[in-house]
Design a protein that fits this description.
By secondary structure, this protein is an alpha/beta fold. It has helices at residues 54-71, 77-87, 104-107, 119-131, 135-140, 160-163, 176-183, 221-231, 252-260, and strands spanning 18-22, 27-30, 40-44, 47-50, 148-152, 168-173, 189-194, 206-212, 232-242, 265-280, 283-295. Strand 6 (168-173), helix 7 and strand 7 (189-194) form a beta-alpha-beta unit. The structure holds S-adenosylmethionine (SAM). S-adenosylmethionine is lined by residues 101, 153-155, 158-159, 173-175, 178, 195-197, 212-214, 217-218.
Length: 296
């Protein structure tokens, strides 16, 4: 927590946060003093919940959050008590689960993959599978001297593994289970439950922000880009991929104009990265991804 606190901010105001109650495992982070009317955010099982309305979020996703913590052995009586304290009095939201967006094979490389048929078709599919792994290429877009890297929306962590090498990594996702799953791929890693559109990162706190296949899921992608840009140190790098280009049009000129709005310069634009997902013995899914790199 000592290392994390200087990097994070209130998702609503970007004010600094201090621990006003409890400890780095089960506690409350807040803007200002404990007696202030500042915004409060719980820390559950060592993970700060820095979403704009943490109480409403946890009321809606309490079961999913508790299940993810329990799977990691991070639930104590204090965790449950704190969670209840935070959601106490919050009404009107039905419980919602998270639909995890990953395949069994992305979590465990030994899980059954696609059963490639014999013959010429099979050989073509085998080639496609070999080419459909874009993660090394994406990680290579992050400069080698970028030591502090934020990955937003890591999912099961297929990219995390390549980003992690020799770097200090901060993972941000709105799914706690995704954070824990991706964190298995890294050693020097910190976790933060947060929303991309209200990225709770301190200004000029990181060398790179990477978000693979997240921007197309966002209702307000410009809010994400603005927060990501402000979190970058001067010269820092933003790396995005998407199978569904948005909010820019498909061409680099449109991406260039859009990034200029948030003070970034477009540095690279590639449109032919293949991303192949093996869903099981009888199903594969193939995307053509765009890779966009911008610099502050
Ligand atoms: C399609 S998955 C991509 C996972 C991984 N980057 C990959 O390419 O395989 C999207 C990830 O972003 C997270 N996510 C979706 N919307 C988000 C938001 N608004 N804020 C933070 N994370 C979000 C999801 O929980 C999930 O982990």
């Amino acid at each position: 927590m000592e290392r994390l606190l200087p990097l994070v901010r209130c998702p609503l105001t970007l004010d600094p946060l201090v621990l006003v109650e409890g400890d780095a495992t089960e506690g409350i982070l807040a803007t200002g003093d404990a007696d202030d009317d500042g915004h409060e955010y719980p820390v559950l099982g060592g993970v700060p919940v820095l979403v704009p309305d943490a109480a409403a979020f946890l009321a809606r996703h309490r079961d999913a959050v508790l299940a993810a913590l329990a799977e990691e052995g991070r639930v104590s009586k204090a965790t449950v008590a704190l969670l209840h304290e935070v959601v106490d009095g919050v009404r009107g939201d039905d419980y919602q689960a998270f639909a995890e967006d990953w395949t069994a094979r992305e979590v465990d490389v030994d899980a059954p993959g696609f059963e490639v048929p014999e013959g010429a078709e099979g050989r073509a599919i085998r080639d496609l599978i070999a080419q459909g792994d874009p993660w090394r290429r994406i990680a290579a877009a992050v400069p080698a001297d970028a030591k502090d890297v934020v990955e937003v929306g890591p999912g099961a962590g297929p990219l995390t593994t390549h980003l992690a090498r020799g770097r200090r990594l901060l993972l941000v996702d709105r799914s706690l289970r995704a954070l824990f799953t991706a964190a298995r791929h890294a050693t020097d890693v910190q976790l933060l439950l947060g929303e991309a559109e209200a990225l709770p990162l301190a200004p000029e706190s990181t060398d790179a922000v990477v978000a693979a296949n997240v921007i197309d899921l966002l209702g307000d992608p410009m809010a994400f880009l603005a927060r990501a840009a402000s979190a970058l140190r001067p010269g820092g790098t933003l790396v995005l991929t998407t199978p569904d280009p948005w909010p820019w049009e498909e061409d680099p000129e449109s991406a260039e104009a859009l990034f200029a709005h948030v003070g970034l310069t477009l540095e690279a634009f590639e449109d032919d990265l293949l991303w192949l997902r093996e869903h099981g013995p009888r199903e594969i899914q193939l995307y053509r991804m765009q890779l966009v790199v911008a610099r502050r």
